[in-house]
Amino acid sequence: MGKSTTVAAAFTPLLELAFGSRPPLRFEFWDGSAVQPSGDNPGTMVIRSKDALNHMVWAPGELGLGRAYVAGTVDLEGDIFQVLRALQSAVPGDARLGVAGAWHALGAARRLGALTRRPQPPPEEARPPRGRQHTRHRDAAVISHHYDVGNDFYRLVLGASMTYSCARFAAADDDGRAAADPTVSLEDAQRAKHDLVCRKLGLTERPGMRLLDIGCGWGSMAMHAASVYGARVVGVTISGTQAELARKRIAEAGLSATVEIRQTDYRDLRGEQFDAISSIGMFEHVGANRADEYFDTLRALLRPEGRLLNHAISSAGGSKIRPRSFIGRYVFPDGELLDVGEVVLAMERAGFEVRDVEALREHYALTLREWVANLETGWDQAVSLAGEGRARIWRIYMAASALGFEDGGLGLHQVLGVIPTRQGRSGLPATRRAWG
């Protein structure tokens, strides 16, 4: 590269191939040169060193860019949602640079001296899990990677509710017709979600009903069911750090007599009977090939007229999280999103009568925006608790997920099923009005 040639000049042809003309945001390079956006500037992508290009050459696409961002050799400045939306709008998800783009990228990287040996991924990246997918051992390793980050870090991101699932931004007693209300606080929205689940499961009918909470996290749903409705709750998780803190929170709330937390796999539950089962934000880890086993296992744990509420992220047509994607390497290895129609069919195959399906995707977008705000407000503390790489992972993954729920690429459904008696009694109210 000649002395008068800037890094921006070397990369302008590649950016034109990627975006059709000028990029949708400002690109700034380590030599101070920059490429200006085609219109209003929503933010800046700062490429801080040649190392960023090396990551992107060796792993083209989102994984290489994600690695560079986690390593700190790429920064996204400005409103993270606006920056990601601008990039997403300018380059459709199925876009490819093709052979010409690959040659431009290699040529530019070579001229800039960025083609070196394959870089090591940042340490926060999950190594590909070993063994057959969705075995107990492999699932435990995957769950540990995501959830055993540190309870204090999760408390900072999730807020006082310590609930890592979609909240419901509406009054706890509304009729289910109101739009998501962004003025509701995150804590109130999580409380409303827990209350809705309890009412759908019929825990309002009498004190002392026995609830199984699959994937109980830090115990928030279990505590709500016990303290508000007098339920006797068994919560299960395979995360050791979750189980430890859940037990501590339950003891501090004086609920140890009615709430039990077990560190165990749901597949090891046998020989017990429950009045209701809640599964909130856990089904994404089950996988399509295990869905029948999952619902068969839960079916065997329910008494006649017992209800199951399955609350899970969904994807039209179903979607496996690819191992070479950013989410697959950094966030949810082995994750899989099922089409809600497939969830309904699997529940019916297990003997459930599906009585209600509710979509809450706009609520999850609001939830994620609240979590991103918590993270950005407490950034220095988050970095001290979990490291800068981990904080960067969470910032970009949560922001991108929020956009996915806003544009409909991701869905969130609560599916309510019941086990009818031999005489066909379901025990459910005739309309939704009973639970709101």
Global structural class: alpha/beta
Highest CATH level, the class of the largest domain: Alpha Beta
* Gross CATH architecture of the largest domain: 3-Layer(aba) Sandwich
Oligomer: single chain
| Low-confidence regions | 92-101
Coarse morphology:
elongated
Q: State the helix count.
A: 16
Q: Tell me what portion of residues adopts beta-strand conformation.
A: 15-25%
What descriptive keywords fit this protein?
436 residues; alpha/beta; Rossmann fold; 2 domains; seven-stranded mixed sheet; four-stranded mixed sheet; 42% helix; SAM-dependent_MTases_sf; transferase; CMAS; methyltransferase; CFA/CMAS
What does this structure look like?
Belongs to the CFA/CMAS family. This is Class I SAM-dependent methyltransferase. Pfam families: CMAS. This protein has 436 residues and is α/β, with parallel strands linked by helices. The protein folds into two domains: 7-111, no CATH class; 136-434, Vaccinia Virus protein VP39 (Rossmann fold, 3-Layer(aba) Sandwich). 42% of the residues lie in helices and 16% in strands. The protein has 16 helices and 13 strands. The chain has helices at 7-19, 50-58, 62-71, 80-90, 98-111, 136-147, 151-158, 186-200, 220-229, 240-252, 291-300, 326-330, 340-349, 361-377, 379-386, 388-407; strands at residues 26-29, 34-35, 43-47, 74-78, 210-214, 232-237, 259-263, 274-280, 302-314, 319-320, 336-337, 353-359, 411-418. A seven-stranded mixed β-sheet has the order 7-6-5-8-9-13-12, sandwiched between helices. Helix 1 packs antiparallel against helix 5 and helix 15 packs across helix 16 (388-407). The chain is elongated and about 80 Å long. 45% of the residues are buried. Residues 92-101 have low confidence and may be disordered.
